């Protein structure tokens, strides 16, 4: 029975940590760190996701196949984010189009 008690203790510690993370997120949002705001928010969200997957989804003590499926999902998500950002960052025509003013013409009216 000591093993079950330590497992329950671990879950309680993880649960309390997950309760504290939203406060950390709010506190991080109150500070202006420039371009680092996104990085800090992403790190906090990644830590929460890691705790949930390791402990509550029991990936920590599972067989190798669910771990492989999880790793493949992470790899696929990283690939999609990378390709989406590469597409967005290489759209130079958006900058050029936004810099040129749009000329509005009115249609001739019949008198």
Low-confidence stretches: none
Distance between the termini: 94 Å
Summarize the amount of helix as a percent range.
over 70%
Tally of DSSP β-strands: 0
Shape: elongated
Total domain units: 2
Largest sheet: none
What is the rounded Rg?
Answer: 24 Å
Question: How large is the share of residues in beta strands?
Answer: under 5%
Q: How are helices and strands ordered from N to C?
A: HHHH
Write down the overall mean pLDDT.
85
- List the total number of helices: 4
Tell me what the structure shows:
The chain has two domains: 61 residues; 37 residues. It is 76% helix and 0% strand. α1 runs antiparallel to α2. By secondary structure, the protein is mostly helical. It has four helices and no strands.
What is this structure's SSE topology?
Blueprint: H1 2-30, H2 36-56, H3 64-89, H4 92-99
In brief:
The protein is an all-alpha fold and 111 residues long. 76% of the residues lie in helices and 0% in strands.
What labels describe this entry?
111 residues, 0% strand
